[in-house]
Amino acid sequence: MIVWLNGAFGAGKTTAANELLDLLPGSTLYEPEAIGAALRRMLPKERLGQIADFQDLHSWRRLVVDTAAALLTEVEGPLITPMTLLRREYRDEIFGALAARRIPVQHLLLHADEPVLRERIDTRAADDGGSTRAWCLAHLSSYRAALPWITAEAHTLDTSHLTPRRTAERLAEAIGEGAGTTGIVQTPEPTAETVAAGVLLFDDRDRVLLVDPTYKPGWEFPGGVVERGEAPSTAGVREVFEELGLRLPAQPALLVVDWEPPRPPAFGGMRLLFDGGRLAAEDEAALLLPGAELRDWRFVTEEEAARLLPANRLERLRCALRARRAGHPLYLEGGVPTGCGHLLR
Fold this sequence. Notes:
6-stranded mixed sheet, elongated, alpha/beta, 13 strands
């Protein structure tokens, strides 16, 4: 298990984590910041110049998960992890990958009022010569912006007037009660190429429905991996029902077949998009969300989708919309139409 202590710089995460080690038998301190420091030493300066924070490195996010899994083969656990995590897409990627490895996470937020945070940052700066003060203060606005989504899922403990020991005692009580447990679907990581089927659903304005998964970054189409022996269109229908509680009246028509090339560590595979048609108003009102898998849904225009979808899914969507208008499916490789597909450009 991982106990993830989130919070702004100056919230007292590391101090509380060290105190917590005495209160949770078998616990081990796990500091992902050390992984970031190691990557800074190993990566070329050209790559480091492209990022503002080591958390922006996919390698850091992947290594956080891989290292946690490796540590849990050596120690009993839990791993006490004091690490600021303010970008929700990074939370989804890390916590989703941990869930895929059957590693449960309890997410706890150590919160303090901003005047208290600033005072603690100034005290810390006096101890380290001020090298971190500007960095910490600059991230206070990011912390304020992230508070709504963090407090919606994490157990929040206000540390403004608590000593480190009392903070740790309160945390130990909350952890023992299961507070902050993140219920994320345990989707196994692929071990080979996969076939996945997505279904595009539209409203009366021809906007397309996207969903926001809890277990990976970025928005997505309703759908999922095709099970062994299952037809892709059947898989799409099944996934729409499992994810949204919606029963499609007929098998959906094929729009796009996209071969996604392997890009390590991803294995790639075939990605199909089907046309699920327009939803009636009563269907929209009845849509459900499984909290362990999806947190939100919305209808979007193609332009709005460009701000939500990763590049490969966006290109797949654009081709699917063109195929829908043209009335025949498209075959893609890596998101690019081949054969007669160029006629739709």
